Amino acid sequence: MAQKKKSDLASEILAKASSRGTTGDDMHIALSIRPGNKISALLEILARLTSKSPAEHASDGIPESLFLYLVSSEEGLELAARQISEILQRGEALQEGSALDLMVRRGVIEIRG
User: Fold this and answer.
1) Could you say which of 11, 28, 76, 77 has the lowest number of CB atoms within 10 Å?
2) Domain membership flag for residue 62
3) DSSP the chain
4) 68-110 confidence digits (pLDDT tens)
5) Torsion of CA 4, 45, 52, 95, to 10 degrees
């Protein structure tokens, strides 16, 4: 059985999510990535040294990585712009430090009033 790369799996998940469109129902996707033994041990050591949980260390780079993934393609940019628009139309704010927030703060996507 062939193994897929994590980036391929992420691409498939985003493609499926964007192809479903909006049906009025909130759609949630849970993605669980489990590190190997060496990474788990490293995260445990870092957690003991810094008083941060392993989850905090593992998730620190996710918004930046997602930002880079989204800006790498026209499809990613369109998906991000659509999501930002929907969030703002609901009267909600972008989560500070999220990939979508980074898109706006770094000038990749401009919000017009």
Assistant:
1) 28
2) yes
3) -PPPPHHHHHHHHHHHHHHH---SS-----------HHHHHHHHHHHHHHS--HHHHHHTTHHHHHHHHHHTSHHHHHHHHHHHHHHHHTTPPPPTTSHHHHHHHTTSS----
4) 999 999 999 999 999 999 999 999 999 999 999 999 999 999 9
5) -20
State how many domains the chain has.
1
Domain assignment present for residue 16? The answer is no
Do residues 70 and 103 lie in contact, with contact meaning Cβ atoms separated by under 8 Å?
yes
Q: Which of 36-45, 48-57, 90-99 has the highest mean pLDDT?
A: 90-99
> What would the two tokens of residue 104 be?
């706006």
Domain of 58, in residue numbers:
33-106
Give the pTM: 0.54
In a domain? residue 65: yes
CA atoms of 2 and 54, how far apart (whole Å): 30
CA distance 111 to 109: 7
